[in-house]
Predict the 3D structure of the following.
Amino acid sequence: MREITYTEAAREALAEQMAIDPSIFVVGEGIGERGGNFNTTLGLYEKYGPMRLRDTPIVERGFVGMCTGAAMTGTRPVVDFMIVDFILDSIGELFNQISKIQYMSSGRIKMPLILRGCFGIGGAAATHHSGSYYPLFVHIPGFRVALPSTPYDAKGLMRTALTGDDPVLFLEHKLLLNKRGHVPEEAYSIPFGQAAVVRSGGDATVVALTVMLQKVLAISEELAREGAEIEVIDPRTVAPLDIDTILESVHKTGRLLIVDETFGPCGIGAEISALVMENGFDDLDAPIARLNGMHTPTPYSPTLEGVITPDHAAIAGAIRNLLAE
Amino acid sequence: MREITYTEAAREALAEQMAIDPSIFVVGEGIGERGGNFNTTLGLYEKYGPMRLRDTPIVERGFVGMCTGAAMTGTRPVVDFMIVDFILDSIGELFNQISKIQYMSSGRIKMPLILRGCFGIGGAAATHHSGSYYPLFVHIPGFRVALPSTPYDAKGLMRTALTGDDPVLFLEHKLLLNKRGHVPEEAYSIPFGQAAVVRSGGDATVVALTVMLQKVLAISEELAREGAEIEVIDPRTVAPLDIDTILESVHKTGRLLIVDETFGPCGIGAEISALVMENGFDDLDAPIARLNGMHTPTPYSPTLEGVITPDHAAIAGAIRNLLAE
Amino acid sequence: MDSHELALSSEQLLALYRTMVLIRRTEEQLARAHQMGLVPGPCHTYVGEEAIAAGVCANLRQDDVVFSTHRGHGHALAKGVSAREVAAELLGKATGCSQGRGGSMHLFAPEVGLMGTSGIVGPSILQGAGAGYSFKLLGSDRVSVAFFGDGAVSNGAFHEGINLAAIWDLPVVFVCEDNMYATEVPFREATRNQNVAERVRVSYGMNAVCVDGNDVLAVHEAAKVAVTQARAGNGPSLIECKTYRLRPHAEGMRDGGYRTVDEVESWRKRDPIATFRSELLVNKQADEAAIDAVEEEVTIIVADAMDFGRSSPFPDPATAADFIFSAQD
Amino acid sequence: MDSHELALSSEQLLALYRTMVLIRRTEEQLARAHQMGLVPGPCHTYVGEEAIAAGVCANLRQDDVVFSTHRGHGHALAKGVSAREVAAELLGKATGCSQGRGGSMHLFAPEVGLMGTSGIVGPSILQGAGAGYSFKLLGSDRVSVAFFGDGAVSNGAFHEGINLAAIWDLPVVFVCEDNMYATEVPFREATRNQNVAERVRVSYGMNAVCVDGNDVLAVHEAAKVAVTQARAGNGPSLIECKTYRLRPHAEGMRDGGYRTVDEVESWRKRDPIATFRSELLVNKQADEAAIDAVEEEVTIIVADAMDFGRSSPFPDPATAADFIFSAQD
Ligand SMILES: Cc1ncc(C[n+]2csc(CCOP(=O)(O)OP(=O)(O)O)c2C)c(N)n1
Ligand SMILES: Cc1ncc(C[n+]2csc(CCOP(=O)(O)OP(=O)(O)O)c2C)c(N)n1
Ligand SMILES: [Mg+2]
Ligand SMILES: [Mg+2]
């Protein structure tokens, strides 16, 4: 199979759907002729022009609210927000409008709106360009939240987003954008709410989100050489969250660690831990553990930035502790 | 001791501090001459005039951002936002600026800014006037979050907010505003991060937040007549969260339920559950349980609104289940 | 009043009158119901401002869309939501236009182009622009209308939404209802320039006019120009309507302190319905009998609507969390 | 240039020149350091726009405050942050003005009134207004300055912040740096009226002027009027500065496609430093020797700053989460 980058994979799904569905349009700062700060729309402006690849002023609230009205009236907007921190200025539109329109209208108005862009820590981007925020969108009812960790998932989840009728937050970790992987040429969808068991093992379950996945897999190989078999699960979407796959795994392994770069308090790991507590307590041979980024704004300097996310040693340590409990 | 309402108690702390500290000012829609939609500033305009009781246009982002700059330069703004849903329009200022200014400036700029106002479900206010959102402020580093459930706590926590140097979200459940209770006339502070053990008992621990507290206490009395003694804990602040008091209680009771009106996923209950899992696993005689409001926007009609928050029967049922596990 | 709109037929004039009276009578009944505790939630009436919704919506097709505010009963009724559905919704019933999920500030009836009243000030402006974007992209000649109050003018949504509609030439009509107050905060304290149309012309290069919002024909004429322009693909405009609310900000709220009795009385004399009625008579565009017939018809409709609302069932509690997503999980 | 600011002494003129050159030379070194991989994060230079920061900040006292943008090195240096502290911060060192926590877009030096550069477009306008509120409430004669680009003009923060400063008469100077582009989106596509000062006068009733942002004396004079007015309690004003950025939006970004070589060249000829230098000479306000002395002094300062930055230690990883709250938990 052909190898392409994560960004290319997501763009391929977008291009395929834009060719089929004339109601799709993209808005964002620099996503027109320029093709997007992260090349998310490269080559599409030439094909579809400014009405479907719409460069905007710096009005995150404005274009998110604008797209809300568009989604309510027959089109399918894709908000390409560049960096997730920027859309904090549109949270009113997101949490009071977009997530509630279908409900308030008793299902008579659909909300096929996609928010997509970069997130995460890396490259000394500092605290205004390093946020994650997805746990907030899990807390608030009304969103689908996709966190693809591979090019394959990026393409398949993007297609699901573009063919569904619900608002989707589609987040791309900045350190994954240029990662390459096998991606089929034909169109395919990955259903929301279906975790991937990326590695099988009977000794402990590790749930790894986005950029943490590859680190966890590498460590699992190391541990395998020591005789410990880790089952690694990538939820792929956190809303809906495929808790059943996690519960099944824990039923088998009795041990669970959740590794997530973003904040712990009221985060995804907390939710998974509480759900397993409620539905798999008797399966547990050891307390569920969480490993998260430090609960701090993101510092700039590499020596600081380097220690605030779970690194190889921290993850390996956490898994070893879990196995030893 | 004298009895006054919850709103009066919080206002008394504000009035006391405004008399002492000329750098305190309040902004909001209708908090000037009119004294606040919920009487939060009644009588203060006459004393302190428009610079300290500042009526604003409907610019939630604007006045929150404005107050950020004020707090950075020697004054102590109180944002009286009326209903918490309205400040979603200012989340950019809250999560990118207010929560990060002390950090970004390496502690050389303080951020003594208070956000206060109503939240919660009740009175058929429908989905734009019924939000809670405090778990979001626990997830994001940099906030203090106070959730007073009694007039006594309202006064003491407000004073702590007004004398500290950190940003504080001070939330008043709309159904508590007119509740009366004993409140000392003199000024006093309740430290952040100190839970109240409101009722002692050895059979199970129930953590009850804000408006849930009185319901849980009433049910505990019923259960006491059946011979079960419930320990009831009110965290009072959820950032910082006094997990030690909860752990101590669980050490004694072995059973824990968290009752919170707002959403479960990535909520306070999830965080408490995960923390107790990590630090008190061996104390648990039964899985920790959560009881939350339904994960839905808030409906208007009383028959719908009535069933989306934990009611007497649901709470009693959850406690009985916990005791029976 | 004299020169303009000579083209309107008696039927059209009476239809405008009928819409205004329908709004007034419906809200009078809703206010009473609120006093009696039958409206469980908040209720902001449009009494005194009916000429605006009536004048604007008379220029719209059913497939045009309206984005409304917290004070939206008038917009809903003028856009064609039935009084039954509005009344039932405020009474919290399953037969309401939002099936009891919404109440006064969340009226939805996409079938007739009512895309929502709103509990939040501002978003109508952005969403209105967005519907215009849809229509333009789809090559449709549908038109989008965004209503908002003077209170929204200082809000960032106004600045961002109006500007986007202007630079992208969207088929949108922005209708600013300046009733001089946002709750109890006077517009004159919220801005140094209350001339919204002038501001919009200069700052955003958008066509904008200011009309007497209590003169239904003036509103109608301005809306006709704006809607025609938008439908023809010639871009957005703004209509600033100077008006006044004759009841408190919301039912059950006190109405004193921030405005004088004299001010209220002077505007009561300019009640848009009474004014229009006497103009119709003076200009012999309608006779007493025709007007009375309208009044009677409306009275019956409203009585029926309230009966319908009262006798309708409350929603089934089991549906409380329905419709969050397009397909139930 | 001719008539205005006759009052400035040679020392003052040379000081303006010195500030501009200090900014230019520091950023040239930072750009080089960035190319060499020594600046770990983003770096937006101010090259071509130095006249604005220099002209404005020369009118400020140390206890006045400045709220800046993502393109903020110039504001920081002009407000008195040392080149050492700026360089060290960009290099990620513990001796930087934000102790390595911030980098280019989060420079903080409250000791000299630099209240932050910003990774987010818009908030400087609101925070600038807020500092004005503090000073007015405290009865101080301090002045607040908010810098922002043309890109912020369409943002709601502009509308809300300017309006609040206007209606409350706050001692604030708003400085709009219109360099014609927001990243690669031209201002002319973001608005139908690029005359920001006109818009501000009409819509917000605020004093506002438009000046040549490449003319340091024009900026200085406008700022003097605005700062004097604010300090005297006579309220806010806005200065619109038309200027141009001579380097790419950010270091390492391509700079083609959205602007022509001709356009860039025409502005390069209007380089504010070269222009001012020849004016000083032509008007005999300074001689070559004096100017050369300034250049030499600055060269030494900047070389020292870069050495300082390079030789400074990185921050201790153990401090990564310090200072989130006023007192550590
Ligand atoms: C964002 C937001 N802030 C505050 C409120 C509370 N509120 C409801 S109506 C209103 C006044 C609105 O004034 P205006 O827009 O002039 O409309 P009017 O009520 O005069 O028709 C306010 C402040 C709100 N609904 N939304
Ligand atoms: C709210 C927000 N949206 C988007 C960005 C990304 N961004 C950084 S700088 C910039 C352009 C800013 O243009 P302008 O304000 O004109 O300043 P200039 O770079 O021209 O000095 C953009 C879009 C941001 N920093 N903040
Ligand atoms: Mg109004
Ligand atoms: Mg610019």
Observations:
- The first helix of chain A runs from residue 6 to 20.
